[in-house]
Description:
CATH class: Alpha Beta
Low-confidence stretches: 154-159
Number of strands: 9
Structural class: alpha+beta
Number of helices: 2
Largest sheet: 6 strands, mixed
Strand content: 25-35%
Distance between the termini: 39 Å
CATH topology: Phosphatase 2c, domain 1
Order of helices and strands: EEHHEEEEEEE
CATH architecture: 4-Layer Sandwich
Shape: globular
Number of domains: 1
Mean pLDDT: 86
Amino acid sequence: MVExxxxxxxxxxxxxxxxxxxxxxxRNGILVAAIDGIGHGEEAANASKAAVxxxxxxxxxxxxxxxxxxxxxxRATRGVVLSLASIDPEHGMMTWLGVGNVQGVLMxxxxxxxxxQESLLLRAGVVGSQLPALQATVLPIVRGDTLFLxxxxxxxxxx
Length: 159
């Protein structure tokens, strides 16, 4: 139903990365998540893993509810930045939402009738610490469209 690829990098001297992802089929389609734990190493990885566990177990919920639930679960951690996309292939729709600096781009497979790409509007904040007002965006999608979720270095936004 979907093809995907992931590239990860662990900093020299670190055992684990705080960068995690999830691609999960659910009854409505597919949930895709890119998650970056704040900071580096084990504490960042633990926050990301907790978010992945919650998202995996609740993948059928609307994405705003998922982010709110992650926020509550991650309050005792460093927190994460993340972007989520819920893809409904039956209806040709994608709902997405980003908190922090996980970039999202939808590249159109056939751009004859509009924009060649759509960019995810990111909300400043940290899930588990400073949750912004959440608003998801819904886009039509078609076969051949490609979704990119890109984890950027946290220090660029969170020194």
